[in-house]
Amino acid sequence: MKMIRNFFYLIGQGFVGVFRNSIMSTASVLILVCCMLIIGTFSLVISGLNQSLEQVKDLNVIMAYISASADEKEIADMQKSISEYSAGVTCVFVGKDEALERLREDFGDDVYLAPYFEPSGEEEESGVTHATRANPLPDSFEITFENDVQAEALNNFVCNLKIEVMNPNGVRETVPGITDTRHRIGLVEKFSNARKGMIVLAGLLMAVLLIVSLFVIMNTVRLGMFARREEIAVMRYVGATKTFVVMPFIVEGIIIGLAAAVLAFIVQYYLYTYVITDIALNYGLGTLAPFGGFAKYIAAAFLGVGLFAGVIASGISVKRYLNA
Amino acid sequence: MIEFQNVSMVYPNGTVALRNVNLTVEDGEFVFVVGHSGAGKTTLTKLLMCEERVSGGRLTVGKFKLEKLPKRKIPYLRRTMGVVFQDFRLFDNKTVYENVAFALRVIGERPSIIKKKVPAFLNLVELTDKAECFPDELSGGEKQRVAFARALVNNPEMIIADEPTGNVDPKMSEELIDLLLRVNKLGKTVIVVTHEKALVDHYKKRVVTIQGGEITSDRAGGYEE
Questions:
Q1: Which residues in chain B have their CB less than 8 angstroms from residue A1's CB?
Q2: What is the value of ipTM here, to two decimals?
Q3: A124 pLDDT band (50/70/90 cuts)?
Q4: Min distance A311 CA to chain B CA atoms (Å)
Q5: In total, how many domains does chain B have?
Q6: Which of A79, A293, A295, B202 has a 20 to 30 Å separation from B40 between CA atoms?
Q7: Alpha carbons B49 and B9: distance in angstroms, whole number
Q8: What is the domain range of residue A226?
Q9: Same domain, yes or no, for A145 and A196?
Q10: Which residues of B fall within a CB distance of 8 Å from A238?
Q11: In a domain, B185, yes or no
């Protein structure tokens, strides 16, 4: 009962402290809001970039074209080697006929591919005839990999796969099993680098602003303690415990942190919904996901940062003041 | 009981405030501690409140051995004593009632108890009609009586008054000491630090004289120059 009574009294004293130093409290809240908005905006943009990355088809795919000299056993051996390269790698054999079919599906009527297929019943009825030509496409492997796989190393590994063939002199010799590869590893790296760069930039800005916020809150709390130094002295003379003396100032820090989190969340909502989304659309980054999908993460991050900054700053301030 | 055994106190800058002080104050005693400025009187009270720590010797206050008292137990030591200062140390933004109630609030006392105790102690110091006044509406003597009420309201075992009459007129000084005598008659130990010779001589109580950090006299009666 006594603890509950003290708890509410100390919470009340925390609010009194915030309003007593209203100018410094407001400054602390605004600096923290800026810090949180930078964290929030960068996080949202990075999430948007990730989504854009996922929308680009076949980014994590290497098409490896198999040498015409490879027999079935060698193809199966190469497929096994590639599949066992790393945990995130899968390797599917795509026969030349399937490749041609895919080509027709992808290009439709844009490319005239009819000569490479057997005449359909419809064509025969219409009297259009043509000689069926040999499929020029090679057999291939469709290799998919997860983002954490070293794409460049995998590509090198695939390119270096060997098979044995009989040369015209009747001597067996080793030749490349894969004649060529096609991939978008460069694009993956560009996206990945852009994302890493933004994370580093966001991290640096966040660290700087967080430190500034900590100092501002520390000063706010210290000013509060200085203004109440006589009260603190009397509290100690009449037997107040250290917890009782410092709690209002910790509560003050927490209130500043929470107020900043709530304000930053509201501003972030409007900033994302009405500004960032528009900018992304205008610069061709596509339609960003609605704020609702990120809301709980942003709220949790803001609350975390707010509480962390509030508690740490006021804690340091109180400790330094009482030890002085 | 308060017991100083060969207590010395040296400040970090090397100033020797007390040297080899031996002093015993029994429960329920009334003691004046006198001496010139810088003699070590205030250091003595600071040691009793554990605001400063002894540099050597042993100091016992009731069940607390102050030379090795952990910091976390200091508040509980201070709850056994009421302290009154020359400069009153009241909160200007709190009423008389709130100033007295504050001492109960910081130890987590129930509101119903606070409502009973505060008027009773304001009545004791004859300030019932000033309960809603702020300190700047009171005279020096009235402010000191508020400070007395605040010191007494926690029902401490002892009262330490550091120059309590320094900011009040002679008549009010006597009234304040009379108040302390009444408290003393209730069984509380009272230690009054002062340098007012006339006041000390008037009451004929035990007088401990400190000079240069040492006790030079400890006797009943008056101020010894």
A1: 110
A2: 0.82
A3: low
A4: 22
A5: 1
A6: B202
A7: 14
A8: 8-55+189-323
A9: no
A10: 78-79, 83, 102-103, 106-107, 150, 154
A11: no
